[in-house]
Amino acid sequence: MEAAMAIPFWLKQSCSRLSILQYLPAARRYSQVDPSFVRYFSDRILAAPLDDFLDPLAFPEAEASDVIHLNLAAPRYDAAYERGSTSHSPMELNARGSCELRKVIAENERLRHQRHLNPDDQVLITHGAMGACANAIDAFVNPGDPVVLFDPCSPMFRIGAKSRRAKLRWVPTWNEDGRCRFLLEGLAKAMRGAMMLVLSNPSNPTGGVLGVEEWDQIAWLAKRQDVLIFVDDSFGRYQYGEPVRLPGNAEFQKRLLTAGSVSQTYGMRATRIGWLTGPKPLVDACRLTSVLSAPFVPSACQASALRALQTPEEMFQPTLNQFRKRRQYAFDRLKAMDLKPDWPNGGYTLWVNVNRLGIDGRAFAERLLREERVLVGSGDHYGPSGSGHIRISYAAEDGRLREGLTRIGAFVDRLSGKVNEPAEMLALEGPRVGVTELAPAFSRG
Questions:
Q1: Rounded CA gap, 216 and 210, in Å?
Q2: For the whole model, what pTM was predicted?
Q3: Can you list the domains of the chain with their CATH numbers?
Q4: How many helices (H) and strands (E) does the chain have?
């Protein structure tokens, strides 16, 4: 291994902020490929014991079948406790994750977005999509650094950034026939001097999907302002129109990190497997923060995720069609209550405006749970604009969705001062969509 030159942390920090560190001989040790990536690295990366991390014997990977692994961290009894098929070979624990799983993820990215990723060093297996987000924030964001969030967005983005003492900059968005829209001027102002833009597509909670125009604007601003882009693609499989690919230009791709998860994408909540993809220097930095916090994703969970991701995509189409029916059914029933849900073009949630009832989203959610035993999301968790909204998921089993909407209807009638008539409630029922099983096709049989 190349001899290390000791550089004081204060010098590394100063040179990095001034984009000078990339010209020092030691910089290539941080970025491995392109020293210009060093300017994105957080203090946690700069202060890490890099020699230990880069030592190939510190975190050995023995994926090849002809390697006899006599450096096991623990005995191997996995197969004795596994249920179902044990025909697959045991997966070794390593800091990047299973080689087989990384290859499948890279292939899926090629098919969906025409991204050509090297599974050896551009894909990292993580503890869920939020594990990927946490690794990225730790790798590139220092206390006080601006992080840009779309309003509304997943509360985990806000919590993750605030817990690292980042400065939040909100960009208002709205749904336009299922399309996520924003003002270019507002995004440009927020991204000025920012370190990272964090978003999900489709949006959680609105279900809005970014179009070609929006992606082109984001790509242009990312290059102009030199901002990293983190995209949570966990809901990307649930798009009801023609999916829009991520921009393919090199300048955008060199700043792009994407995350996915089998929890949302495949409905495997207990498995808690996610992944992070992007340029090697950025993924390596995230791998370091992963090793420092929560390394080694369980191999049994990775094996389960691998089987799911290897399922032919056409087997998912019947499930996606059922979700289309649910989306329409839930939307129509809420409209019949004189509420104002946004029309989603992706995901499986409805963003519902309850302002006309004279109550905010938090009070609505609290009273609905107390009086009707129905749990919905309080809009204020999702951003500054969410106080007058609630989030409703139509991922619930068909009968529970129908009963839950009926109880919401009764609650809304009470808030509005209406008298519940049986005939009115029957009218609200609407046509039954006949969804009796929404388990993904790969889990059947």
A1: 10
A2: 0.81
A3: 91-310 (3.40.640.10), 315-442 (3.90.1150.10)
A4: 18, 12
